[in-house]
From TrEMBL:
Pfam families: NMT1. One of its GO terms (biological process) is alkanesulfonate transmembrane transport. This is Taurine ABC transporter substrate-binding protein. SUPFAM superfamilies: Periplasmic binding protein-like II. Residues 1-19 form the signal peptide. Gene3D superfamilies: Periplasmic binding protein-like II. It is found in: Periplasm. Belongs to the bacterial solute-binding protein SsuA/TauA family. One of its GO terms (cellular component) is periplasmic space. PANTHER family: ALIPHATIC SULFONATES-BINDING PROTEIN-RELATED, TAURINE-BINDING PERIPLASMIC PROTEIN. Residues 57-265 form the SsuA/THI5-like domain. Keywords: Signal.
Amino acid sequence: MFKKWFALPLLALVLVLGACSDHEVKEGSGNETEEGLEPLEERATVVIAEDGAASGAGFYIANEMGYFEDYNIEVKFATFSNSDEMLPALAAGEVDVAGGISTASFFNSIAQGIDVRMIADKGHNNEGSSYFTFVIREDLQEEITSYEDFKGRKIAVSSQNAVDDYIFGEMLKYAGLTRDDVETVLMSDFGNMLAAMGNESIDAALQIEPLITQGESQGLHVRFGDATDYAPEAQIAMVLGSPKFLGEEREVAKRFMAAYLKGVRDYNDAFIKENGDLDRVIEIMTDYTALKDPEIWKKVGVTGLNPNGQMFVDDIKNQYEVYKANGAIKGELDFDQAVDTSLVEEVLEIIGEYE
């Protein structure tokens, strides 16, 4: 989820689209479409910038279960290595849909004129099983029993002025601490945090799955509390849409969003409600993501994905204000334009809310 994207020139992007479509277009699911959302008369192709992140589960499941095909939509996946180039491609309509991580640089791009819209949830923490939360060294369990005990400790965080840094700050406020009360260790590679735990060069880390589960199995660290203790509505990632897709191609966009939400609902049925086809969903996730062990999928705290597509908009605004207060934002962001929930709202009126 925390990979970044580098854009390619348009010609190279076209080549990448062909190369990255490893997953064949699926047969329709055989399900009837909702009244008011019949299949498109002419086949449409939707380009998604996605790199195999777990938070793209809704895209992968919808594709494999035939939900896009039900609406006569074919999806193609394009991979970027840096959002600085992905966002202009999205704004220009070369890419229709993408995932965005909350960072100061992301907000800066929009504030400085890159016209993309945040349209749906693509990542938050599930209460009690956050996929992105703090861990402490296993040998410190008797010394660190509350967040206040982080005082004076060496804590690894992967970046500054990004969502993990924001969550770190929320934890410190919750504990009644300041950044001066701890020693922050910037460590961009989450994997290196495991080694640092092993050689005891850090005491705690803001870690991510599946490395949380992996570190626990290796006796390197233990999960400490849960991110929802202090940041219960942190919006970590968002589905982004191009203005062209949301405007000129609205009928395609509506059907795309309906299929996406059906995929997210299958995901929630399997992982959250535990009454869905877990084996099939895990099979799809192992196919599309770097986590290939089905048994690990049954143990990890999975990415939170809202089955109604709703974002924590107030938290998005709060993160922006925090980055701005840190001097990391230049320019003003028009949230009335940048956050567009109308597509999700329109689709929910048709397919109904998840229960």
